[in-house]
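A note from the maintainers: we've had questions about how concatenated examples are separated. There is no special marker in the raw files; a new sequence line simply starts the next protein. For clarity in this README we add a label.
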Amino acid sequence: MPPTRAELLQGTLDLLILKTLAASPLHGYAIARRIQQCSADALVVEEGSLYPALYRMEGKGWIAGEWGKSDNNRRVRLYSLTAAGRGQLEEETAMWERLQCAITAVLRTA
C-alpha cells in the first residue's frame, strides 16, 4: 500500500526547511526531495509553497542563498543555514516539541 501523503501543518514548513539545511547547503528542488524522502513520501512540498518560504526566510536572515552548480552542472541557488537560522531552528524545534506533547496529551485523555 503506498504511503498516505499528509498536508503540512501551518507553520511547519519553516521548521522542515531549517532542519533540512542544517545538514548541508541545498538548492530548492533538493530541499523538497529531501523532505519527501525523509518522510517516506508522506510530505510533499510544492514549489508554490517552497520558494516563497525560501525567499521569506532569506529576507529574515535565517538562510543565505548563493548561486552555484548542481550535481548535473546546472546553475542553481544554493541555500545554507545562517547563525540566526540555527537559533530559529532551536526555537521552532522547542515549539514543535511542546505542541506535540500537548496534542498527545489531549489524544490520550479525550
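[label: protein 2]
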Amino acid sequence: MNHAVCYVRVSTDEQAREGVSLAAQEERLRGYCMMSGLTLDTLIREEGVTARYSLAHRPGGKEMLRLVRTRQVQHIVGLKLDRLFRDTEDCLRQTREWDKAGITLHLLDLGGQAVNTSSPMGRMMLTMVSAFAELERNLIAERTATALQHKKQNGQVYSPTPYGYERQGDLLLPLPDEQAVLARIRQLHNEGMSLRTIAQVLDADGIPAKRGGRWQVSALWYLLRHAK
C-alpha cells in the first residue's frame, strides 16, 4: 500500500520570477519517495496552470483525483501547499476527504520541513501552516492592490502595457486608435452583444489584439473590467 502519485505545478509567471521549475520539483519529489520507501507510480506535471482553480478544475488535478478515487494510489506527494491548493478552505476540505479514504498527503516543504498527514501531529501542522500561508497571501495581495491602484490613478505603468496605451518610461499615454476600439467594445457590450460575438466582429474588421492575432473572450472581459 505504498503506491504514490507526485504532483508538480508551475505557472509561467512563477517560473520566470522565481525559477520554480518543474524539473527541480520533480527531482526533490523522486528523492523523497525513494528515501521514504514509496513506489512512485505516476508523476503529474502541470505547466502554466494557476493555483486559482481547485484540483478538480485542473487537467492534471483531475487525473490525480481519479487515481485516488479508483484506489490506484495511497500517497500524494507535493512540494508545497501552494502547488496543490488555492487557499486554506480548499486544503482542509480536500485533505479531510483524503483522510477518510486512507490517503496520506506528503508535503516536502511545509514551513521548512517535510510533513505528512498520517499522524494527528502532521494534520495539526498542516492546518496551522495553511492558515498562516493564506494570511500571508492575503496581506501580499492587499499591498499589491494598493500599489497598483496608486500607479493606475497616476497614469503610471502598473502591468504589461494595457490595450489603449503606449509606454513612455514609467508613464502610460493614450493611443487614439486603440482608445477608439475600446470605446467601440464598450458600446457593443452595452448594446447586449456577447463577448464572443464582439471578438468575431473585431476579427472580421481586421482589428488586431494588443499583441496581434485574434481577439479572445478572456481579453475582452479583462478590458471591460480594468480599462480606464
